[in-house]
Structure formats: C-alpha cells, structure tokens
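Notes from hallway chat w/ T.B., transcribed later so I don't forget. T.B. wanted the structure written out for a chain they're using in a teaching module, and asked if we could keep both sequence and structure tokens in one place. Agreed to drop them here.
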Amino acid sequence: MQFLWELWIPILVSGGMCFVWATLASVVLPYHRTEWKRLPTEHDVLEALRKGLPAPGLYSFPFARGTDRTRADIRAALEKGPVGYVAIVKSGRVDMTRMVVQSIIFYAIVSTLVGWVAWNAGLKLGARYLPVFRMVGTVTTMVYVLGSVPESIWFGRPWKSWAIQLGDGVGFGVVTAATFAWLWPQ
C-alpha cells in the first residue's frame, strides 16, 4: 500500500484531468456528435415499448438463447430483422450529478490501478519523466480502449464508434501519463 501513500496526488489529479478530458471530448469536440442516430420510427418504437414498459436492463431482439437460434421461427426472425440490442434505463430526468460522481470515481479507480502497475513494474521514488510517461500512458490507453472491443465483436457496436473511443482512450492515456510523470514523487 506504499504506492497509495506516495502516489495519491497523481492519482487524484489524473482522475480529475480525465473527467475534464471526457467533458471536452463529449461536449466541445465534434466527433461524438455523429456517433448516435435517431430511429426514423422513434415515436412508434417508444409507443410500443411503453405498452409493455420493460424494466431497466439489457434486451436483445429477436430474443434467443444458445440453441434457440437453430429454431425455424428464430432463424426467420433473425433473417427478416431488425436484429439488435437495447439498454433500457430508468424513466425520468437524467441524474447528471450521480453520473458525474460515478465517472470521477471510475477515473480515480483506473488511475489507482495504473499507479499500482507502474509502482510494481519498478518505477519507484525519483523515476524519470519518460519511463513514467511511457508505462502509465501505455497501461491507461489499454484500459480505456481495449475494454470496449467486445461490445463491437458481440453486440454490434459500430467499429466507427469504437474508433471514436480509441481517440478518447489515447487522450485519457496522454492526460494520465503526463499527470503521473509531472507529479511522480521524488
């Protein structure tokens, strides 16, 4: 736990800086604006969903598990389409405060784990800027970029959307690496 005592400042500052980067990337920079699209039949879809009002959760359509996909009716439904996945969230106002707090906690957890990896990889007190930057930047970028690849492989998230996250992840990596390298204890 010595790494926590020595690295608490870069952990907290980089967590905060990642939140700033995320805010800039999603609010100011234009590339996220093309990621989401409106369904042409949004009104009809919403009305249909309201009739059954599904509980918050993850849903797939047409619904099939394991060998269900070999059934003739499921195969026909898959061929006819559409095929998709949807996340239903709780109705009502978006609780931005809760999401901001959860995001900052997430960034701080990632920074803590990255600090632990760097510390245990041999970067001790007095490590030079470049080795800290390289190690922290590589691990941080891997965390933010590679964790979402299965969403594209298994759940149809467009690879273009993943590429946008790649840009975000590189930004997170650079911000975290620069912060750790700057504030690494002497």
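Follow-up for T.B.: The chain has a mean pLDDT of 91. Might be a good example for the class.
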